[in-house]
Amino acid sequence: MNDTKHFKPIKTKRAFEEVCEQIRGEIQTGNLTPGDKLPSERELAEQFQVSRSTVREAFRTLEIGGVLELHKGVHGGAVVVSGNERPITQTMADLLSLGGISLQDYTEARACMQREMIRLACERGTDEDFAAMEDNLSRMRDAGPGISVEDRTHLTQEFYDGLARATHNGAMVIIMRAFTEPLSFYLNQIGVDRTWDVAASREKFLKHLRARDAQAATDEMIGHMDRLHSFMLSQQPG
Amino acid sequence: MNDTKHFKPIKTKRAFEEVCEQIRGEIQTGNLTPGDKLPSERELAEQFQVSRSTVREAFRTLEIGGVLELHKGVHGGAVVVSGNERPITQTMADLLSLGGISLQDYTEARACMQREMIRLACERGTDEDFAAMEDNLSRMRDAGPGISVEDRTHLTQEFYDGLARATHNGAMVIIMRAFTEPLSFYLNQIGVDRTWDVAASREKFLKHLRARDAQAATDEMIGHMDRLHSFMLSQQPG
DNA sequence: AAAGTTAAATGGTCTGACATTTGAAAGCCC
DNA sequence: GGGCTTTCAAATGTCAGACCATTTAACTTT
Hints:
Two copies of one chain form a homodimer. In chain A, 68% of the residues lie in helices and 3% in strands. Chain A starts with 14 loop residues before the first helix and ends with a helix. In chain A, helix 7 (149-166) runs antiparallel to helix 8 (170-190). Chain A is mainly alpha-helical. In chain A, strands 1-2 form a two-stranded antiparallel sheet. At the A-B interface, helix 1, helix 3, helix 4, helix 5 and helix 8 of A face helix 1, helix 3, helix 4, helix 5 and helix 8 of B.
C-alpha cells in the first residue's frame, strides 16, 4: 500500500459551492444557455432551501467567474452570458503581482504565444485584419511622441488585439489579452521608454505580415520584445 | 467630435468592489505579500465602515480569484496566497461549455501552445524531467487497456504536465493545465477511444524529446492530436 | 506526561429589514 | 394622440444582529 495518492484532500463543501455546482451543471447539460435568466435570489433561495445570502454568494462567485451577469432594478436578475475572458486576465495580473509567475517566465511565454499567432496570422490574415492594424498604427503615429502613457499602452494593446484577431481563432484573442493587459497595467505604473519609436518597428512588422513572411515578422517582434523586456527589468525594483 | 470612444461605460461601483480594489491595491504596492494574514471579517468591516456581509462578498471574490484563502476556526482568517491557477482553468472550462470559444479554436490553440512547449522542452528539459514523463508512461502501460476513463485522463494530464514542467517556465505549466483539464472533463463525459494505444505514440514522442528533435516531436504530437480531435468531433452532439 | 474538556475566535449561514436602482405603467400637459 | 413627467413595483445591494460549525489554544483531569 505505497500508492496512497488516490486519496483526495478532504474539503467540507460550503452551501454556496453546492449551489454553484448545480447551476454550472445546468449549463454543462445545456439546460441553461447564454441569454437565459435565472429566478430571483429570493425565489432560488426557496428552491435550494437555503438563505438568500447563500444564493448571493453563489451568484457572486459565478459573476466573478464570468458565467453570470447581475442586473439591478425591476426585471433585473442573473443572466447567463456566453463567457467572459475577464477572469483569465485578472488572474494573470494577480499571478504577476503575487509572484506566482515571474516577469521573466511571463514575457517568455508571451513571446511564445505571439510566435504562434504570427504564424497563424500569416496563414489566414485578411486585408481587413491588416488594415485595422494599419489604422491603429497611423493613430499611434498621429499621436506623436507626446502621447500619454495610458493612451500609448491602450493603442499598443489594440495593436496586439489586431494581431490576435488576424488568427481568426477566438481562443487566441483571449490569450493575447491575458498577456497584454497585465503588461499595460505594469507599464502604466513604471512608465514607458519615450526614446523609442515603436511605430517604426510595428510598420516593418506589419509589412512582413502582409508579405506572409512569418519568419521575418517573428524576428522583428522578438527584437522588439527583447528591448521592451530589458527596459522593464531595468526599471524593476530590486 | 467624431471620436467619442474615450467615453467609458458607466458602472456604479458596488461597495464590495471598492473593498476588493483596496485589498488588491495593497498587494500591488507590496504592502501585502503572500503569507500575510488579513484582519477578521468583523474587524475589517469596522475599518472599511461597511457591514460584515460586504467584507464577506469581497473576500469571496478574492478567494474565487485565487488571491486569498479563507480558513475557519480561531486563528483562522483570510491569508494572501502566492497565486492560484484555478480561476484560469475554470474559466477556460466555462468558456468551452458556454460556447465563448469553439472546440475547434480551443484544440487549435492547444496545439499551438504545445508546439512552443516542445521547442522549449527540447532546449532545456533535463534527464529528471524526461524520467518523470517516462515514469508516467510506464504507469500508463502497466494499467493496460482496461484502465478506467478517469484514470486514463488523469495520467494523460500528468504526462502533459511533465512536458510543461520540462520547459522550466511557470507560466507554461499554468497554460498547459488550462488547456488539458477542461479537455479531461470533456473526455470523462464522452469517453475515450479504447482502440487507440496512446502509449506507443507517447513513447515515440518522448524519444524525439530526448533526442532534442523538436520537429520530429512536434510532428508526432500533431498527428496524435489530429486523431484525438477527429474522435472528439465524431462524438460531439449535432 | 498524556488524554480529555472547555472556551474563545472566526468563518458560514440564517433572518429580516431598509436603500438603491431600474424599467414600465399611469398620469398629465400640449 | 403624442410626448413628457411622475409614480410604483420588483429586483439587487447593503446593513444589522443572531446563531451554528469548526478549529485551536488553554485548561483540567487522570
